[in-house]
Every structure is written in C-alpha cells, then in structure tokens.
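For practice. Any example?
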Amino acid sequence: MIFTLPVTTRVEDFDQKGLLTPPALLSLFENTSARHADQVGYSVMKESLCCGLAWVVTNWRIEILRAPSYEEAFSVSTWLRNGPRQATREMLLKSEAGEILARGQAKLCMVDRRTGTPMLSSPERMAAYDPEPASAFPDRLPRLRPPVSYTGTETVLLRRSDMDYNGHLHNTAYLNLALDAAPLEILSQGVHTIRISYRSPLRRDDPLVLKSTLQNGGWVVSFMRGEEVCAIVALNEQLKPL
C-alpha cells in the first residue's frame, strides 16, 4: 500500500533561496511515515508509550533531484518493503505534476525500549502495511563506513532539545550537526545526496566529538563517543553503484 500526503510546510523549512532544506525533507519523510503507521493501526507514539516498542532507523539514503520552492505544491508518498530481519521504508517527494523531486529509503529495526533488544516484527504487523515490492532507488550503494583518517575535529555539547521521545539524539539532529561541520565549498554546491548510518544511540550527557573529512568526492562526518563511532553522515558522495 502506497500512502500519500500533501505537504503543509512552514517558513522555517526553507533556506535563503526559498528552497526546501535537507533537514526539512528528512523531517517530512519521517512524519509521513509516522502518519502511515497511524493509519494502519500501529501508532508510533502509542506503541512507544504504551507497549514499549519502537521502530529504530539504522540507515538513511536520500537523493535530492530538485529542491522544491516555497510557492510549490508537493506531496510525500511512502510504502514498506519487508525483509527477513528488518523492514525498508521507501519514500518519494513529488511535485503537483508528478515530477520526482527527491527519493528516500530508511532501514528499520524494531526494538524493545525497556531492554534495547532488537525484535522481529510479527507477520500480522507487517501484513497491515500491505508491503510493496518496488524500491524508490534503481540501484544499491556500498556500505557506509567511517574514514580511516580525518582533517577536522569539533567537540559538541548536546542539548535537551536535540533529544527525541526515546531519549536519544533525534535523527534530524545528526544531519543538522553534519551540515554545520561541512565546509562552505561543499554546501555551496547544494546538498544532493545524504547517507546516514546509526550505530549506537547518543544521549544528552554523552561526550560527542565530530570528526570529518573529504571522502568519495563528498564530506563525511563521524559521530564519536570516545573511540566509538556512533553514527556516520555522508554528504554529496560520488559513488559507483553496486
């Protein structure tokens, strides 16, 4: 089942050129996915607060073909593809005329919030989404790995407002921090591709250091807690598909 919602944006979702920002796009994808879950009877908030279950994103892949402007009307479509151990959520941002403006793909894992243990979703839960076989992307990319060395280091103090309802650093906060760490020469070209790999959740009191460098023609940022790589964000990579 493909679930589609027209987008209602806010002024703060757009940059100084009047174009939708990458963090706003990520937020639109996430919120449309949550509304899809509401419709099929598995509310994200209810499942988390009442049942102690949460869908955790392990990986994001986003491609921005053309950022829509403030004056445009557009919509987000999403559907689920299921696999043996994790679900894949596919997403498309489309103009009113049907032009694909951006693609998104999120790998999901269900987790018991009380123990932090990954769980297999029940067949009944997956069937409620009526999964589709199609992918938003025509290809696959190599796994996102941390660089072997870095050229930049920055210590970051996490804020209470950066946390999500699970008490973890919110998905979109990783992207915002990575964009802040990227040099202007990278951002001046516009953000065309985004990949995020979440390895271990960060909490407010965690000491966080961002280490970054040029890699694969783009900018890669590792989120470090001591020697542990908790997440990796890559912007504008130039990769050969698998």
In short: The first helix runs from residue 22 to 40.
